[in-house]
Amino acid sequence: MAMKIRLARGGSKKRPFYRIVAADSRMPRDGRFIEKLGTYNPLLPKDSEDRVKMDLDAIKAWLDKGAQPTDRVARMLEAAGVLEKKERANLKKGQPGTKAQERAAEKAEKAAAANAPAAAPAEEAAEEAAAEESAE
Predict the structure, then answer these.
(1) Taking Cα atoms as reference points, which of 34, 45, 30, 89 lies closest to residue 67?
(2) Could you tell me the CA-to-CA distances from 6 to 14, 23, 53 in Å, in that order?
(3) What structural domains and CATH numbers belong to the chain?
(4) Which stretch of DSSP H or E encloses residue 83?
(5) What pTM did the predictor assign?
(6) How does strand 35-40 pair with strand 17-24?
(7) Reduced to 3 states, what is the DSSP secondary structure of residue 11?
């Protein structure tokens, strides 16, 4: 049986609340679980002690039995000092999607086209002024 330590959502619409549970990986997210290991309330401020509550002894016991934490739970366990920090490489982090990149390129082209005619009369005016000064 593949065991996972994961989040099971509770709470009402737009008011999330999660239980940290040990469950069979084949069960639904909010379905049957074996043991409740803690809670996570994302609506509380990040420095609040009540935001994440975990039974660390029970979690360590499940980890010793071979249960695998999900990414979000692993981050919580790293913050609690139960797991070692893992190096994560999210190379696409902060990179806009394809459509957004296309829109940015079009916007840059329009800005360059708008600036080019505005700069051209200024250059012509500077040339005319220089020609007048040399003629005098």
Answers:
(1) 34
(2) 20, 7, 14
(3) 3-80 (3.30.1320.10)
(4) none
(5) 0.63
(6) antiparallel
(7) coil
Residue with tokens 């039974």: 55
Contact 82, 60 (CB under 8 A): yes
Count the residues in the chain.
136
Q: Which amino acid is at 74?
A: A
Structural contact between residues 28 and 17, judged by C-beta atoms closer than 8 angstroms: no
Buried b vs exposed e over 117-131: b needs ≥16 C-beta within 10 Å? Answer: eeeeeeeeeeeeeee
36-92 pLDDT tens trace: 999 999 999 989 889 999 999 999 999 999 999 999 999 999 998 888 888 877 767
Residue 56, SS3 per DSSP: helix
